[in-house]
Design a protein that fits this description.
The protein has 2 helices and 32 strands. The protein is mainly beta. It has 3 domains: 111 residues, no CATH class; 156 residues, no CATH class; 151 residues, Flagellar hook protein FlgE (Tick-borne Encephalitis virus Glycoprotein, domain 1). Strands 7, 8, 12, 13, 14, 24, 25, 26, 27, 28, 29 and 30 form a 12-stranded antiparallel sheet that branches. 31% of the residues are buried.
Length: 437
């Protein structure tokens, strides 16, 4: 009988509106939760009954079809903690938590909540102890392609001995050729120009190295002889002079002053104090216009202007301690050391999915993958469709309280209307019962 079915139809309306109210209440409860993504209750009608008279059908109520999570971007709030991270754009942080009870996740979770910190073992972790996944760097600062837990295991950077020097100088072509040979006892008077810089031994000790340049005869162009020296007291094999020659060679320039070739006779040092012996060093004056196909830009030259050191650098440094960290937009974790060295220590990983609606909630504002979401596509931020990572920032909930209150009103009215359909149906049944009186 249709009249009794109407009561059960009203009951389904009460049920779905009750479920909808539970979803709204959960959204409001998490309105201030970092990285929370709000849910939306979606209804559908129950299978209608064919009345057998043409195309006439009668509905049998409603049911909850799905509770869909909306993964829209939340607002970003600036914090004071460096390891607070937020993603602007697509993607999720990858967190490993082997203690989880959710075996379906395989111990791997995805979250937009970047409230991280380094624990006592050096792991970048969330508040529940889960380790943040990323890509670590080798000792040269090159980021690996292997996914692993982000861990800073040491704050010390060991010293590195100088093995290469880049020297960009301009040697005045107006200088005359020195007739007398270079003399270690009187280097200033037997050279036209000198340049001084620091180099480092295997212990990280700095040594002041002075390179003297002396113009020599060359009928085909311009040639300069160079002699690199250090204090004789700083080497284990001193001569009878105050300085020790550790390098010697010739640098040649074309008639228009461009670097033509570089020839090194020897360049090796034996520093005292237990440092490595025969420390070989390469001196590079820049790309020459010969075999290296340079064009003169950024290379040493010999032109009619005052001799000067334009630029010099070397790859050695003393030991240093980690002074501060910086996390870039591309997820790179960069360390700044007390010796002035900057080094990539690793990078935070970000994952995207083919279907974010297929992700399942695991609590603590975390998700885990399912067949419907597809496998995670893990990589570096700012690659593919992955967003940027902002340091000292957290993502707010994407709950719009005004919309939730409007939905609450509509749900309340829906619940009231369905309860009225039940009470009205009850009154109709009562009238039927009274027919026999």
């Amino acid at each position: 009988m249709g009249i009794s079915q109407a009561m059960y139809t009203g009951v389904t309306g009460l049920s779905v509106n009750s479920d909808s109210m539970a979803v709204i209440a959960n959204n409001i409860a998490n309105a201030n939760a970092k990285g929370f993504k709000y849910d939306r209750a979606e209804f559908e009608d129950l299978l209608s009954v064919d009345l057998g008279t043409g195309n006439a059908q009668m509905g049998r109520g409603a049911r909850l079809r799905d509770v869909k999570t909306l993964h829209t971007q939340g607002g970003l709030q600036v914090t004071e903690a460096l390891t607070d991270l937020a993603i602007q754009g697509n993607g999720y942080f990858v967190v490993s938590n082997p203690k989880s009870e959710l075996q379906e996740a395989g111990g791997e979770f995805f979250t937009r909540v970047g409230s991280f910190s380094f624990d006592k073992d050096g792991y970048l972790s969330d508040s529940s102890g889960g380790h943040v996944k990323g890509f670590m760097a080798d000792k040269e600062g090159n980021i690996s392609s292997k996914l692993s837990d982000i861990r800073l295991i040491t704050n010390n950077l060991p010293p590195v001995a100088t093995t290469k020097i880049e020297l960009n100088v301009n040697l005045d072509s107006r200088q005359t050729v020195k007739e007398e040979p270079f003399d270690l006892a009187n280097p200033e008077k037997t050279a036209n120009f000198n340049s001084t810089m620091n180099i480092f031994d295997s212990h990280g000790r700095a040594h002041s190295m002075t390179t003297y340049f002396r113009r020599i005869e060359d009928p085909e162009g311009i040639s300069w002889e160079w002699h690199s020296t250090v204090d004789a007291q700083e080497v284990s094999d001193p001569d009878d002079f105050k300085i020790k020659e550790i390098g010697k060679g010739v640098v040649k320039f074309s008639n228009d002053g461009l670097l033509l070739s570089e020839e090194t006779e020897f360049f090796s040092a034996n520093f005292a104090g237990g440092a490595f012996k025969d420390q070989a060093i390469v001196l590079d004056f820049g790309k020459n216009v010969g075999l290296e196909e340079g064009n003169g830009v950024g290379a040493s030259a010999s032109t009619a202007s005052r001799s000067d050191t334009v630029f010099h650098s070397q790859n050695g440094y003393e030991s240093g301690n980690l002074k501060s960290l910086k996390i870039e937009l591309d997820g790179t974790i960069r360390g700044f050391y007390t010796n002035g060295i900057q080094r990539n220590l690793g990078a935070v990983a970000v994952s995207t999915f083919e279907s974010t609606s297929g992700l399942k909630k695991a609590g603590r504002n975390q998700f885990y993958k399912t067949i419907d979401s597809g496998p995670p596509r893990i990589g570096l931020p700012q690659t593919g469709t992955r967003g940027s990572v902002y340091s000292a920032t957290l993502e707010e909930s994407n709950v719009d309280l005004a919309k939730q209150f409007v939905d609450m009103i509509m749900t309340q009215r829906g619940f009231q209307a369905n309860s009225r359909s039940i009470t009205t149906t009850d009154s109709m049944i009562e009238e039927v019962v009274n027919l026999k009186r």
